[in-house]
Write a structure and sequence with these properties.
Number of helices: 2
Radius of gyration: 14 Å
Shape: globular
Strand content: 15-25%
Structural class: alpha+beta
Largest sheet: 2 strands, antiparallel
Distance between the termini: 25 Å
Helix content: 55-70%
Strand order of the largest sheet: 1-2
Length: 64
Amino acid sequence: MIRWMFVIFLALIFISWFSPVLQKFGFGRLPGDLRFRLFGREMFVPLTSTILLSMIASVIAKYL
């Protein structure tokens, strides 16, 4: 259980580091990525980008 929490924590750190680079390639602006304002704060839910990145990661993991 602790190992999975550590992996998820590291994945979130890497995603936050690489998010500006990924946005230059169009991730975060795909159809299905939700942006909305709630109580004066902008919320962002990257549904399509998350699915696409997980498919890329699974293909890489399968062939390495």
